[in-house]
Write a structure and sequence with these properties.
Elements (H helix, E strand, L loop, with lengths): L1 H8 L2 E3 L4 E3 L2 E3 L3 E3 L2 E3 L2 E3 L2 E4 L4 E3 L2 E3 L1 E4 L2 E3 L2 E9 L4 E3 L2 E8 L4 E3 L2 E3 L16
Length: 126
């Protein structure tokens, strides 16, 4: 059990110049400064840096986006879109913060209905 606790406290980092094609699941936080083509599922916080690029769905408790995300996002708590962010896709979030200069194209639903349980691919699971 101690290894699982230790794993969840260590940050995961995808550095600049790194490209990953595939899904990522983690119990801890993750920072992306490279390219990800796949879905991200994190029980912690997802940070997409200024040069970070994600093409896929993002499911997590908190997220801070400074880079680019193309895909649906389901954030149970707070989603923060920084001034340099570019988001193209639908958002479901408990709370949303958008700085002036951020670009967002898609639909957004927030509040208690948005954060109740898993919301990504709900239609596909019927």
């Amino acid at each position: 059990m101690k290894n699982v606790e230790m794993e969840s406290k260590l940050p995961n980092m995808i550095g600049p110049g790194t490209k990953i094609v595939g899904n990522i699941e983690t119990n801890g936080d993750i920072r992306i400064d490279g390219n990800i083509e796949g879905n991200i599922n994190s029980k912690g916080k997802v940070v997409v840096g200024n040069n970070g690029f994600v093409k896929g769905e993002v499911l997590c408790s908190n997220a801070e986006i400074s880079g680019t995300v193309h895909g649906k996002m389901a954030i149970t708590e707070l989603l923060s879109l920084k001034a340099s962010s570019k988001v193209n896709g639908d958002i479901k979030s408990g709370k949303l913060s958008i700085e002036p200069g951020a670009l967002f194209s898609g639909t957004c639903s927030m509040g208690s209905t948005a954060s109740s349980g898993p919301v990504i691919n709900r239609e596909e699971k019927k």
